[in-house]
Write a structure and sequence with these properties.
CATH class: Alpha Beta
Distance between the termini: 35 Å
Helix content: 25-40%
Number of domains: 1
Oligomer: single chain
Structural class: alpha+beta
Strand order of the largest sheet: 1-2-3-5-4
């Protein structure tokens, strides 16, 4: 994978999984599609399905090998969301209670106050976008 050494775990014709070169915890694994897609919504159903299938296959073995019972599974979908590499990738990060990371809600220091009216309007807008496709 590029010029960095990789510890490939498993691959198939559409996706590959390897240890992250800059791990957050022992066993931190990346699962990526073999075709380039910048964001999740750019992926074909075929590659999206292959990516999720490989991720599902790996979560339990990674947790067992890392001697943990939990993991965070994350996709940063775009630069503003923290995506550092312009290629879809799923992080599987083995977790412990003492690893210093919190739940996803702890990432957001500035959480907005959203009224129930705004929540309803957002749900309507999303449903409208779905119907227009």
């Amino acid at each position: 994978m590029g010029n960095l050494p990789s510890n490939i775990i498993v691959q198939d014709e559409k996706a590959i999984a390897f240890l992250d070169a800059f791990p957050l915890t022992k066993g931190h694994t990346l699962v990526i599609p073999k075709m380039h897609f910048s964001k999740v919504q750019d992926m074909t159903e075929e590659y999206g399905s292959a990516l999720i299938r490989l991720m599902l296959r790996l979560v339990d073995p990674i947790e067992k090998a890392a001697h943990v019972s939990s993991s965070t599974i994350a996709i940063h979908n775009g630069k503003e969301a923290g995506q550092e590499v312009d290629h879809v990738h799923v992080h599987i990060i083995p977790r412990t209670v003492h690893d210093g990371a919190g739940p996803i809600h702890s990432m957001f220091v500035k959480r907005p106050q959203i009224s129930s009216i705004d929540m309803n309007q957002m749900a309507l807008a999303i449903r409208g976008e779905l119907l227009s496709r």
